[in-house]
Amino acid sequence: MKFWDASAIIPLLAEEPAREAMLRVLEEDAEILAWWGTPV
Fold first, then answer.
1. What confidence tier does 2 reach under pLDDT thresholds 50, 70, 90?
2. What's the predicted TM-score (pTM) here?
3. Who contacts 19 (Cβ-Cβ below 8 Å, separation ≥6)?
4. Rounded to whole angstroms, how far apart are CA atoms 26 and 11?
């Protein structure tokens, strides 16, 4: 399990240059832990 900061989750939801790279990381380990208090 990897810790995902809010700034890393945004490319999973929106078209951004880092989207493809973040999707590959997510495919390797699909469990996401995100801190609820991180401002987005």
1. confident
2. 0.65
3. 11, 12
4. 11
Taking the C-alpha atoms of residue 14 and residue 8, their distance in angstroms, rounded to an integer, is 11
Q: Which of 40, 4, 35 is nearest to 26 (CA)?
A: 4
Q: How many residues does the chain have?
A: 40
Q: Which long-range contacts (CB under 8 A, 24 or more apart) does 20-26 make?
A: none
**Residue 28: what residue type?**
E
Rounded Cα distance between 30 and 32, Å, is: 6
Contact between 4 and 33 under an 8 Å Cβ cutoff? The reply is: yes
Interatomic CA distance for residues 15 and 34, integer angstroms: 20
